[in-house]
């Protein structure tokens, strides 16, 4: 496995309630995280793949009236281009476990920086168990269908 290139494919940060949110925020917002991993071949029948680590952070805070309001929304798609020279049965676990494991520290830093630069405490993601994520995606049909990677 060779990591050829890594890059930010998409980055979005919005504070829908600005500037009022900064004057009414009394506590650290509650952050809901969503994470997904996608992989696709870059050439038909080849061994070069794009792996995308997709992260979305939705921060909710209590407003002055006690109602929940959106503090910020951050979305990041961080990608890597990987060359795999392995047996076919190893392609899926490499693409959906090992490749995102290599990309994760960089995506984590970008998310922390953008939330901090946006005026909020940095979002520091805990380590992700990509093996468990991969296994949960495979579900009951595990072993029957290869992922279109």
From TrEMBL:
Keywords linked to the UniProt accession: Chaperone, Cytoplasm, Protein transport, Translocation, Transport
GO cellular component terms attached to this protein's record: cytoplasm
Chief location bin: cytoplasm
Gene3D superfamilies noted in UniProt: SecB-like
Pfam families for this protein: SecB
Superkingdom per UniProt: Bacteria
Localization per record: Cytoplasm
InterPro entries registered for this protein in UniProt: SecB (IPR003708), SecB-like_sf (IPR035958)
Family affiliation: Belongs to the SecB family.
Binding partners and assembly: Homotetramer, a dimer of dimers. One homotetramer interacts with 1 SecA dimer.
Record's function text: One of the proteins required for the normal export of preproteins out of the cell cytoplasm. It is a molecular chaperone that binds to a subset of precursor proteins, maintaining them in a translocation-competent state. It also specifically binds to its receptor SecA.
Protein name per its UniProtKB record: Protein-export protein SecB
Lineage: Bacteria, Pseudomonadati, Pseudomonadota, Alphaproteobacteria, Acetobacterales
């Amino acid at each position: 496995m060779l990591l050829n290139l890594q890059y930010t494919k998409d980055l979005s940060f919005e504070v829908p309630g600005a500037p009022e949110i900064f004057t009414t925020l009394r506590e650290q917002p509650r952050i809901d995280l969503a994470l997904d991993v996608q992989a696709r071949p870059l050439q038909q029948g080849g061994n070069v793949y794009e792996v995308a680590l997709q992260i979305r952070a939705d921060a909710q805070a209590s407003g002055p009236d006690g109602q929940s309001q959106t503090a910020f929304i951050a979305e990041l798609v961080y990608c890597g281009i990987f060359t795999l020279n392995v047996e076919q049965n190893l392609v899926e676990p490499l693409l959906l476990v090992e490749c995102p494991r290599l990309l994760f520290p960089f995506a984590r830093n970008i998310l922390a920086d953008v939330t901090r630069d946006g005026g909020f405490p940095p979002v520091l993601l805990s380590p992700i168990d990509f093996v468990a994520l991969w296994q949960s995606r495979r579900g009951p049909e595990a072993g029957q269908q290869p992922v279109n990677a």
